[in-house]
Amino acid sequence: MNVPDLDPDLLRAFVAVAETGSFTAAAEVVGRSQSAVSQKVLRLEDILQMRVFDRNSRSLSLTRDGERLLTAGRRLLIQYESFMRELRDPPKTATLRLGISENLVQTQLPRLLSRFSDLYPDVQLELTTTASEDLLAEYEAGHLDVVIAKTRKGGSPRPGRVIWREPLVWLAGPDYRADDRRPTRLVMMRPPCIYRAVMTEALDTIGREWVTACTTSNLLGIQASVLGGLGVTVLGKSFAQNGLQIVPPSEHWPSLPTAEVSVIGEKPETQHIVQPLVALLSETLQESGSLTLDTPLFAANQR
Q: I want to staple 264 with a disulfide (CB 3.0 to 4.6 A). Which of 76, 147, 172, 286 is the partner?
């Protein structure tokens, strides 16, 4: 049996008459003339091949079929109006103000963001990438919702959850030759910077003299300066590539601490966005082999 097409306006007129008890009152509800409402109800009865009202000079009452139709009609109109709202209203997007340390995912960031966008197209990211200390300051000032940054293990306690660890190493250019008779030439980020503090404190601890060979504001400047032979620096072990070489610990090169990757700012209202992002970050780093010291702590915490 073919199912007849049914105009929602016909149902809307019928429901208005049933709920108000008269065609006159229903006309005011739906914004049509009384005769137009009456015609819509007649048209509905014709399509459905049933009488929905008992009409007499004194009252207007629903038939048994009319009572069934009123229950089903109300439900159908609710679903129809919900459907139309979804079509007309643009999808609501969640906005996440995210800060990621520039030395955390130097080559993996494009891949990470691409995968996140594919999985969560309705999330709008406002991304900031800079030094970890600057990101933490921005977070504390309320300008960022979440920060994924490197912090020094054993340093000042920070609120947040550690998701990964990486050893810090001394790095030099391919043609670097150390001269232990002269002060060590250091390439450093502008303060505040955890790597700057690590390298100066390490050399001060063994009483080795040092001088600032170059100060830069970003990671690219650090890499270029070290590759150009201006001096040595301290970065995560994952940076020992593209010409940068590790200077092994020795009498003149003290061992260095471990850096921790932490997520700061997890809150109930953003957790549904942050946790998948952190999971993708851990997965991306693990697949690339960038951080190989530990199993990602995020995965361990989820078990």
A: 147
For residues 157 and 263, state if they share a domain: yes
- Measured CA to CA, the distance from residue 152 to residue 36 in angstroms comes to 76
What is the span of the domain harbouring residue 17?
Answer: 8-88
2 in any annotated domain: no
Residues 294, 125 contacting (CB under 8 angstroms): no
Buried b (16+ CB within 10 A) or exposed e, 84-98: eeeeeeeeeeeebbb
Tell whether omega for the bond before 157 is within 30 degrees of 0, i.e. cis. Answer: no
**Greatest mean pLDDT range, 9-23, 101-115, 154-168:** 9-23
Residues 17 and 139 in one domain: no
Phi/psi for 21 (5° steps) reads: 90, 5
Number of domains the chain is built from: 3
